[in-house]
Amino acid sequence: MSTPVRRSRPWATRSCRDCMGWGRLDRPRCKACWGFIAKATDRHCDVCRREVAALDGICRLCRRQAGLIAGPDNKTRVDLTVAARTGHQLFIIGTLRSRGGPPPRPASSGPSEVRLHRVPPHWTELTLFEIPRDLRGVSSKAPLLDPQLSAFLSTRAARIAELRGWPPRTLGSVGRGIRILCAVHRPGERIRASTIAQLTHTAVPASHVLEVFEDLEIFLDDRPDAFDAWCTEHLAFLAPDIRAELDTWVKILRHGTPRRGPRAQATIGTYLRNILPFLTEYAAKYATLRQVTRDDITNWLAHRPYRAHDASALRSLFRTLKAERLVFANPMRGINGGKPATTIPTSLTTDEVEFVAQAARQDPALRVVVALAGIHALPARRIRSMLLEEVDLPGRRLDPEGLDRPLDDYTAEAIIDYLAHRHRRWPNSTNPHLLISRNTATTTAAVGTFWMDRLVKELPVGVDRLRQDRILEEALANGADPLHLAHVFSLGTRTSLRYTSAVATSAAEQGPLTP
Questions:
Q1: CA-to-CA distance for 187 and 144, rounded, in angstroms?
Q2: What is the DSSP secondary structure assignment for residue 179, as one 8-state letter?
Q3: Cβ(485)–Cβ(377) under 8 Å?
Q4: Which residues contact 380 (CB under 8 A, 6 or more apart)?
Q5: Tens of pLDDT along 464-513?
Q6: Cβ within 8 Å of residue 374, ≥6 positions away
Q7: What is the rounded CA–CA span in Å between residue 201 and residue 56?
Q8: Sign (positive/negative) of CA torsion 186, 191, 195, 199?
Q9: Exposed, middle or buried by CB within 10 Å (0-12, 13-18, 19+), for 476?
Q10: CA 207 – CA 203 distance, rounded (Å)
Q11: Phi and psi at residue 230, in whole multiples of 5°?
């Protein structure tokens, strides 16, 4: 009877069962681990708490981790429990042994302190490559790779839903998105905002899911900056030197300097749009803005319809480049771009007033906007950002952004009717703003300019014309006193003088009244 021959498994790329090293093996364990098993005394590691071969209670992988942390210069005093604090560094089999012999050992400074620590209950696999996730075809009923994270996020989503007043349908959609994400991400793997944005294609509100992930260490916000994307798209044709000079200017405008505050993003966008035609025309002629001359700017401004605004943008550009020593001389110095054309405020006609009043009776939100703009002369920005706590209905006071004003009967009635309409349509909304929409009812954001423009689209006049009519009315009633207008409506000096000049011009055109 012949003795059966033990056949080895075919060679394949796999990981060792004990040390988890990666390599080409024909057995479940690597050669080093087979040798370690021969002299092992236990079957349980006290450091990583795994059921593997161990010598004096410590497995081979924990010993390798301790030697890696200690370094090649310290092989006698090694903290064998260091893996409990640092975890394990996985390796490729056959790469741990150094060639050429170890370097000379320096003198030891003294014994190191040995402390026992337990490893975390869950192992975390480090990410080797960042591969973009594709959520197409991923079902919310797929097996979860990280069920504990899914349970934590679901509980957090339910708490946020209670605070924000999410309807049950929205909460269910958010929970479905959380399960999809946890079905494709392993424990410890960071979840990107770009991956969450793909949930929009699966009828999941990605903005609500992003709110659940805010301020979590596992969340990685990789959303591109919209302003940088606009600059990349519209300024790609520029020469490298011109683009670098322009980026320096934009960076100073956005972030400021120790002696200069940052500018609003809308102002920066206006500057770039104003000088974009100039850059388009001279980018083919010059490789750097240092080559731009005074005659170039003068000839270009002579044919511009809004010369004052374009000259202001160019003045800001070359003044900054001169201060940063990127140009030798400021070509805008001494060039007068003129003053921007100012419009004269005009009052509303009787027909326009009647049309606005009739439309305000049919829409509670429009009635509030008409009251705040036409009676209190608030700009559209303040109306959109007004909070509920700034309206004191029992005390009949209105306090938008620190302005303490009396609340008239028409505005108070309009706000009361709108709050009743808001409660009927969004009973669970906790948005702190007075005006909300379908998109902002379950958030804490204010309504946008698009919502405001669509609300007043059918009116013959906009919010700014309503505000101008109210200020002109106050100027006529108080003898065109600019100080009174500045105090009542929080206007600047030039704005107050513009309204008083309009009243004086209108009175001069009408002439003296004859008895």
A1: 10
A2: H
A3: no
A4: 373, 449, 452, 463, 464
A5: 999 988 888 888 888 778 888 888 888 888 888 888 888 777 666 665 54
A6: 356, 466, 467, 469, 470
A7: 56
A8: positive
A9: middle
A10: 12
A11: -65, -45
